[in-house]
Amino acid sequence: MHERSLPASPNWYCSRCSDVNGSGLLGVGAKNIIFLIDVSASSCRVTGELVGHRDLVSGFSFCQHAGQSHICVSSSNDGTVRFWDSDSKVLIREQAAHQNSVAAVHWSPVDKNLVVSGDEKGIVVCHWYHTGDTASFFPEPRTIFCISCSPHTWSSVAVGYKDGMIVLIDVSKKGEVTHRLRGHDDEIHSLAWSPLVSEDALCSRLEDIEATSGVSAGDEKGCYLASGSKDQTLRIWSSAKGKSVMTLKLPYLKKRGSAVDPGVKERLWLHVHWPKGRPTQLVSSCFGGELVMWDLTRTGKQRWTLFGTSSEGQNHSRIIFNMSSVRLQDDRELLISTSMDREIKCWDLASLDCCWTLPTLGGFVYALSFSPVGTGCLALGVGDSMIRVWNTLTTQNQYDTRSFWQGIKSKVTALAWHPKKEGSLSFGTDDGKVGIYEVFSNRPPQISSSYHKKTVYTLAWGPPVPPMSFGAAGGKPFHSLYSCAGEGIILQHDPSKLNGEASDIDKLIRDTNNIKHKLSPHTDLSWKPDGKVVAIGNEDGCVEVYEAPSLRLLCSIQQHHKIINALRWHPDLDSPPELRCLLASGSSNATVYVHDLRSVIENPPEVPAVLTEPYRRLCGHTSKITGMAWSPHHEARLVTVSYDGTAQVWDVLQEAAVSNYRGHVGYLLCVDWSPVDPDVIWTGGKDFTLQEWRVSKQEFTKPPKGKKMVDLKEKMKTNSKQKKKNKKAPGGGGAAAPAANGEHVAGGGKALTGQELSGEDEEDEVRSTNSPVPPSGERGAVTATFELQRKSFTAMKSKDKPDLNLLKKKKPRSMLPISTSMDHRPKEDLLQDCVTLASVRHDTAPPARCVPGQGEHIHLGLFSDRQALYRMFEAEEEGHVEAGHYDSVVYLRLWSGDLEGALQLAVEKGELSDHLLSIAPMAGFEVWSRTVEAFVKQLCLQEQYLKAASHLLSLNKLYEAVGLLRSHKLYREAIALVKARLPADEPVLKELYTSWAATLEKDGHFSAAAKCYLAAGASFDAAKVIARKNDVPSLRTAASLARISGEDALARSLALRCAKDLVAAEDWITAQDVLSSQESLLVHRLHFCVAELMTAMPAASRAAPQLCASGAPWASPGEHRVSLQDRVRDAWEARFGVSQSSAGHRSAGALLQELKSAESPTPTANIPLGQVQLYSSLHLTRAVLSWLLGDDGQLIKELWQAVAWLRDAGHFRVSAELCRRLFPDGDVSVCSRKHSKVLHHAEEEPQAAAKSLQAFVHYHRLYEHWWSNSIQIQSGVPLPAAGPGDEAQGEALNGDASVEGVSPASCEKLDFDASALLSERHAACQAAQRSVGEIQERLAAMVLKHSRAQGGQLDPGENEADAQSSASGENKADAQSSASGEPLDSQGSADAGQRPEDPETLLSLSAKMSEHQKRLMDLPDTIKMYPHPDVVECCLVLLHLRRSSPSVLETLRQKAKDLLRQYGTDASAFKASQQFLP
Fold it and tell me: Does 549 sit behind a cis peptide bond, omega within 30 degrees of 0 on the bond before it?
């Protein structure tokens, strides 16, 4: 096939679009083709293609098993998975199990028959190669990005998704998900399994991780999995544990090369590859095209090594998409990488150096040209907006290519080397730009200031012509640059002054040849090598030859009948004189003509000659000619390329086909002969490839006969009548595809099969064609190809016109259909009409019953008098009415002058229009007014309310127009109309605003509704509607709005609501800022200050002190010996100016009176801690204000309430911390040492509150003492997580705390008077309350049992069970009853009369309840109002402490025992007290 070639660029944004097998054969997916490349350590060579997919290839994988390594699989966006034989390059099997685009595919390294693929909808399919069976799974409803089969377990498959999720599935269990690996935040680009089967390789690196879990890495069978994600991290996962064991952050090493356009925005793609035999080394891509080798066992910051550091320019310059590795027979391990920079690189994994680079092409090869000065220097113009210059003769690097992109930014469609100056290359682009590159310098190109409007087709260097040739001897250039573009003009550019204006040579042609008519648009030009004449091709198929420098027309070649695509002069060098004037031309009619112009050039005629017969005719191509080149080594040897997908070598003199090349897929665009090897030709085309091939090695001599050739021969045989018929265009865009793999085509009429995607207007080579999953913003509309653009503006002039019947517009309906139809009668009738009309016109005897405009002579009304015309109109109107064409009736009446009748009919039929309305004033004001009103009704029926209101304004019916808009909820337009036309105090304006506001409020548009209320003067409603959103910004805005509007009460209410929400979020500063705008809310600012101080307490319930980021300076933790109330008082005085001496609204009395109205509900366990602290701080605020007033009684009661709130809500630790903060010394009588405040209580209630508060302070200190001793006694026992009532209390009550073997002297002594906890009156009250609760439970159970028995809900067995449980409950309750307050032995005698087998009755329980309640009522109210801690519980704790601490006095111990005997009769207390009581 071909010698060397540059393949198409590998597809972008695919997780696995390339792979290499064990023999060194690399497969790369590019567009819809897989290119096969033979790689070695020193070179590479494209060996073939796998063609068959109908859309972009998204995945490719080789079978890595011995004996089957030539089999490969590919996936595509066309939804198919195909199996190929890479040796024979044939398709083995196609499977279409997917219904959507397939995103990834992988051949299992373990099972030689298993292939797994996944599509963009999340479907995973298992393909069995040997049987052709498939099985589908749906593990996750997510978009799949990559798939990797485990190299150790055949059934384990890793799937990476777009949202960052990785799942491990077991395909042997119907796709069951074994692990979900969560950690990445963005797309999973690649997955790679460790080549080692166990998870021992990284144990040394993961010691710290595994130590925390207590499990070694090798205890569980599994394998490591590496993943690369768009979130810029690599992760190593344990497949056994299903969790991440290592995270690697990409280093930022982005260093762009000089050959990359920095203006191109690119995204990150992170590919990972785990080479075989390297379990501790991982290769990954990086930000800007770098490759890094990670050492997974290395510690420290830099765990990676950069590839290609031995010399500059080795790395890729853009992001890398795929990597694959192979170990050759010489034991060298190579890594192959593909990148966005359109290069394939080979790396030596031992030295990390680049072995070779294979350039690839990302677009159509539009132009190629060998330099006439630099031998072997080949320039390529490619549709990826780059020029490649390839030194094809180098021996060290056979792909020595340089890329040029600066200043181009569009497809390069034309190239031309300077004939004398080395390295000077001109280029033309798809957007009409012309420039010159100096390829041996690093300077940007020179760009001509004269742009073409369309695509540049051809560039040519030639001698200057006027006006540029004037004064050529005075430093003007010897060569000018000529450009021909799609708009049909040829511009002459001065290469030394490209910023000057280029000249259009058409002016010179007209002036020289005295041409007055418009010139045909030009499509190509070619200068004869000696510069004496120039040939110009036109879109009408004419080729004109002009003599330089005046451009006098020598001859016109009128042989082609379609657009001229290529013109080439035979080279002069070493050619016989008779061949130097040969001109070859190619057009869109597939035939190449060669003309001998020697006689015309050597003996110019006085009158331009017209040539209609060619010198030679070369027939064989089956589609349009796109390019040609004469051989510099042979005489009259020509090569042409065509849309038929082949290149044809001709012996021109013999008109014989020499050789035909069919190696491309799709049509060809350019060709050139090698300047050094007579047998080598280079071609490029639509398949994104440049191919070098030898003439002598081609199997075929002529192009294949396709449908195009058959149509052409049939067309030549048809007569002139048949030529006028429209021909059906051949399929596939008019180009017959080449035979696959050089197969012969049997039968002249058989269409060839090949790989044409869709035709001439196929997708182009913008970056998105290489990107199955392109980034946002890069997918542009697919543009038409260069050749289609060349003929687009001549499509209608071409002989191959489309069906004109399809292009005709629909004929409008006739206004006079009846009379028109009369003109389509037989010829005899039409002639008789002429005789009849002449008789009528000249008053001769007309035929009987002949009335022009009526009956059979209706059509004659158009040619007779006005009355006849009116009669014809009447008949036509009747016909239109029957057909329902009332608009035509209206216009007929309008034409006849019956304007009012026309308007009346239009009103009746609903056919009024703007035109009729515009002429209605001609009928008078009343008619016009009625017409406008009718038109308004018609418009309302058509729901054109705005237009209807506008027409009402023309009648000065402003209020009706406003009402119309309002009734259809067009409030905005109605308000605009009222404000523009009516006074500002118009009542309807307020009504509109209010109605609109109600509608907006109903729809949830609160801000817009508020603006309406404000405009209507309803500021209160505006604030209320904004507050309905009930978030902090809305509440704050509503409060400000209410304050500005003078709604002070509402402003205070809203500001307070907003501040409370901010306090709930612990945004204290903003809360204070919100309240600061309302002077009357000072007391709430004081309250929130106290709440912030309480929240800032380092409570024992928190792991560490936590301050909200939005806290005031006073809330910082202070000294522990400073009481909380002192800190509150200092903060008030410093920040708010509130002290004992404050007066007015800042006085303590006024503030306290205002604060008494604040809500303080009953504490429950369901209230959150933050809300509990807020309520507790309310009481503390009242306490400090009472202190400032000198009211000690109210002060102690409020302090008690502050502590009780936390205690009753179940927050024991926070309550204990508050007690420590309020009373650092443990004495509740000392309110403040800083301000020397000692409390004195003369009244009974404050005294009771003080005693209760003191008891709870001692109670918390008792538990602190017990816990600290427990930690010393039992090393390793954690601090109890809660207060009394949980595990700590249980241990105390059940006697489980062991203190044996501990010295009493080692325990701390009590530093407080514990006798305050042993109050006998409170013990009796608590015992009575417990008894009442137990009796209430028994009564409830008895009532429930009775109700069930009455309803028949219990069966006999259930009754018996309930009776037993009731008896046991009563027995237990009797044992626990201690309401009498008598000792245990006396109570036993009192209960002796009742036996357990005697059941309690409702009457007996009620009597007991009354007795206990009477005892409770006999107790003082202060005991019930201000309770003490549980006395029985305190007794047990003190007795426990007595064993380990000598600080508990004997008298205290004896009193605790006595109280236990008397009141500790419930089950748990009774059991715990047995070890202390004899």
Answer: yes
